Description:
CATH class: Alpha Beta
Amino acid sequence: xxxxxxxxxxxxRWLIEPFGKMKVPGVIFADHNLIxxxxxxxxxxxxxxxxxxGIVKASFAMPDAHMGYGFPIGGVxxxxxxxxxxISGGGVGFDIACGVxxxxxxxxxxxxxxxxxKSAFSETxxxxxxxxxxxxxxxxxxxxxxxxxxxxxxxDNMLAGGAVWAVEKGFGTKEDLDFIEERGVAKGANPAxxxxxxxxxxxxxMGTLGSGNHYLEVQKVVDIYAPQIAEGFGLKKGDLLxxxxxxxxGLGHQIGTDYLRQMASQAASYGIDLPDRELASxxxxxxxxxxxxxxxxxxxxxxxxxxxxxxxxxxxxxxKIFPTAQLTMLYDVSHNTxxxxxxxxxxxxxxxxxxxxxxxxxxxxxxGDLPPRYKSFGQPVLIGGTMGTSSYIxxxxxxxxxxxxxxxxxxxxxxxxxxxAAKKWQGSQIVKELAERKIIIKSKSMRGLAEEAPDxxxxxxxxxxxxxxxxxxxxxxxxxxxxxxxx
Length: 487
C-alpha cells in the first residue's frame, strides 16, 4: 500500500482520502502536536481497517491513537451486517471490556489528610493506612488470584449475568446497576462459546485487578469545567473519588486468542482479503461471527462482574478506616468492545456493529441507555490518565454521534513501548518522585512501574483538549491521584 497523505480539514480533524483497497476514508481527531506523535504504523492500521468489508462512513482514530494488534488502539469502526459487514477480534482486543468504573466516596481531601501534620502522608497517617489496606486487600499483579473460586456452572452463570450476577451474590447493591452501561449485563452472551481453557484461566481471577496499565486510584477533584453537568454528576471541587481500571483478565485474553486464530483461517473462505493477518475478520452474520459475538459478550460480562466485585472489596476497606464514607456509583463504561447500536447513516437509522478498541462510548443527552439522572447531561465519559498525571470526567455530546458514532478517547495513549520504558526508568525512582508530589504508589512489580512511567504516555490533558475541541465529548472535571495501586 502506498504511503497515505494526511489532509487537515479542520483544526482537530485530519483526513486520509481512500486509496488502494480502502473502501472509506480514514479520519484522525488530533491537534497539530498530537498528529505528529502518530507513527506510520498506526496510520497504516487506520488505512487497513478502512479496507474491511461493510465498513460505514470512515475508519476513525481518537486523539490517543497508537499502534495496536491489527486495529489501532484508539480506533473506532462501524460495520453494517446487512452489507457483508465483519466482526474482528483485533477490533476488540485481548482485554475484552477493559474499562473504567468511578464512584463517589462522600469524603473530601480534608477528611483523610491533615496537611498541618508533618506525617500527613506517612504509613501511619489516615491516607497511608488507606493506601496500605487497599494494596493488601485488592488482589493485583500478573496472574493474581482472589478469594473467590468458581466451578464451571458458577462461571457460566457469571458469564451470562455480569454485574447483575455479582449483585445477586452479595457484591454491591441493585442501585449500582443503574450506573453501569447496559445496566450491568451484556445481553446475548453465550458461555457455551467460551473455551474450557478460557474458563479455567478465570476460575480464581474474579475480583482481581491484574497488571500492566490496570490500576485502582483514590483521586481528588481539582477543577470543574462545566458546573451544571458536574452538579448533575454529583461532583464538586475537593471531592474524593475512586476509579478502577481493569477488564476481563485471563478469560478475555483467551477468548481473543481462540477466535483470532479461527477468524484468520476462515477469512479467505468468505472472500475477505485481509490487508494484515492481525485484522482477522469474518462476516457478523456468519456462524463463526455469531459464535464470537456470544463469547465476546460473555467476556464483557466477566469484566463487569469483576469490577463489581472489586467495588465491594473497596467498600469494605473504606468501611474499616473511614466509617462515614458512602461509596456510590458515578458510572462504569468499557473501552474494548464491539456492540450492536442504532445510528444515523445518511438520514436513515441502522443497526451497526460498532468496534471501539481503546475508545469510549460517548452518548449525548437524551440517550435511552442513560440513567434518568444523566439524561439531560449526556453519558459520563471516564478518561484514565497515568499514575503521575491527571484523569478526567467528560460528558457525551450529541455532536459525537455524527462525528464518530458517539465515541471519544479512553486515556493518554502510549508514546513509548513497555520495553523502552523499562530501559529508561526504574520503578523505585518513580515511587520516590511521585511521593515527593504527595502521590502514594503501591505495586508488587518495580519493572511494571517502570513500564507504566508517566512519561511513557502522551499528555492526557492534550488528548482531552483535542477530544473536547473536536466535539467528541465535553470537559466536566479534572482529577488528580492521591493513591494508586498497581499490579
